[in-house]
Design goal:
The protein is of the alpha/beta class and about 425 residues long. The protein contains 16 helices and 14 strands.
Length: about 425
């Protein structure tokens, strides 16, 4: 099949987090999208930030070329200490924040200069920026080279999460995002719920496009295809870590321990769940957001509610294979977010045919009837919803089957890549 003539050539992508520095949702998105676009016939030049030494500066993946731009400040997303735990990591938090912001600015200026030198504004190409960490490059390319810019917004949790106060940093980021939205040809978001939130904030509705993510992770697909006996062996292995003799009922949460992820609501729901059910264990997989005390706050709440026997928090992130194995082992997976632009983690649990309960932050169209969605941030409602499926294995199994069907019918990275390139090719208005 010949390549559609309308596709831009090439596409320049500014995405601070790219492989091998995958530490969050943006990095996982970049990894999957590069794989999905590598054979679609459109040259894609991706610019990512790195502080690592010894990794190739340029890597070719079919039609996709990844350029790793060396910057100061280590991980620009703030997910881990810069320098991999060396001297920089021992700097005070305020100094680290300054170093990180300098790194973000250096990364953006270097990328913008490289793109502008290609003559992108005269070649029919498009510049694509992901979240606020690429906005400076997008604005520079638009103003200095008149290059069309597409702005991907994956989350605005610093400004949209109701449980967080608006800090000066958050206000600055919001101003930068708004400036990019005003100069962008298109704004791409992962759900209708996020689109509606942005329209309510005054963003241009006619330039917003909803393109959902895919779900296929190689490890997830491997686990989903396991024969029944191997699947049972893996489930039993994980369950024995958390349940005496592997017997009982297991609830699994995965994500940051941030307030908007609903972790505190889940801990407060635990006494209602376990009051007459001593065999229930709730496992929290994840850790605090950078520069917060979320770990300590969750630990204090577990002590205050006296649920330490039933709630286990490791305060660390696990690799994808371990997270997916925990989903397989769970009787119910729970993601009670009050703010969630898409919620890939829930989609992945649904793809494994696990019964999933989500919070009010999930857009109804994202999970459909494949997950049980709480209508409020209420410990009592969350407890009742979880108990419904913990106490009724048949209902839980049917929910898991609906979830798997919903995900596999609606979400693939191949479809996401095709829709994304089609959006990039839309004519300017």
């Amino acid at each position: 099949m010949s390549e559609p003539a309308a596709r831009p050539r090439p596409v320049y992508v500014v995405c601070a987090e790219t492989p091998p520095d995958v530490v969050g949702g943006l990095g996982r998105y970049a990894e999957r999208m590069m794989a999905a676009m590598r054979h679609l016939g459109t040259p894609v030049e991706v610019f990512g930030a790195t502080s690592r030494r010894g990794v190739p500066r340029t890597e070719r993946l079919g039609d996709v070329t990844l350029h790793r731009v060396r910057v100061p400040g280590g991980d620009l997303a703030g997910n881990r200490a810069p320098g991999g735990g060396g001297g920089v990591a021992r700097m005070p938090t305020a100094v680290l924040d300054v170093v990180r912001m300098i790194g973000i600015l250096v990364f953006n200026v270097r990328v913008a200069a490289r793109v502008i030198r290609t003559g992108a504004g005269r070649s029919g190409s498009v510049v694509v920026v992901h979240d606020w960490m690429g906005c400076v490059a997008g604005i520079l390319c638009r103003v200095l080279a008149r290059t069309p810019v597409v702005f991907h917004v994956h989350t605005r949790e610093l400004n949209a999460a109701p449980s967080r106060r608006r800090s000066p940093v958050a206000a600055g980021i919001a101003a930068l995002e708004t400036a990019q939205a005003r100069t962008a040809r298109l704004i791409v978001v992962p759900s209708a719920g996020m689109r509606d939130d942005l329209v309510a904030c005054g963003w241009p509705a006619d330039r917003l496009r909803v393109i959902p993510h895919g779900f296929e992770d190689p490890e997830l697909l491997r686990l989903a295809a396991l024969p029944g006996d191997e699947r049972d062996r893996l489930r039993d292995e994980v369950r024995r870590r958390h349940l005496p003799g592997g017997e009982g009922r297991l609830v699994v949460f995965a994500g940051r321990l941030s307030p908007h992820k609903g972790v505190r609501t889940l801990v407060r729901a635990a006494p209602l769940i376990t009051r007459d059910r001593d065999d229930v264990r709730i496992v929290l997989i994840g850790a605090q957001a950078p520069r917060t005390d979320d770990n300590a706050e969750v630990a204090r709440l577990i002590d205050e509610t006296d649920v330490g026997r039933h709630v286990a928090a490791g305060y660390r992130f696990l690799d994808s294979a371990e997270v997916f194995a925990h989903f397989l082992a769970a009787d119910v997976c729970v993601f009670p977010s009050t703010y969630e632009p898409f919620g890939l983690v829930a989609i992945e649990a649904m793809a494994l045919a696990r019964p999933v309960v989500v919070g009010p932050g999930y857009s109804p169209e994202v999970v459909g009837d494949g997950a049980a969605r709480c209508g409020s941030d209420s410990p009592r409602e969350l407890a009742a919803t979880l108990l419904r499926y913990l106490d009724d294995p048949r209902a839980a199994s049917l929910l898991g089957e609906r979830g798997a069907a919903h995900v596999r019918e609606r979400y693939t990275w191949a479809r996401t890549a095709e829709l994304t390139l089609a959006a990039y090719a839309e004519p300017s208005r």
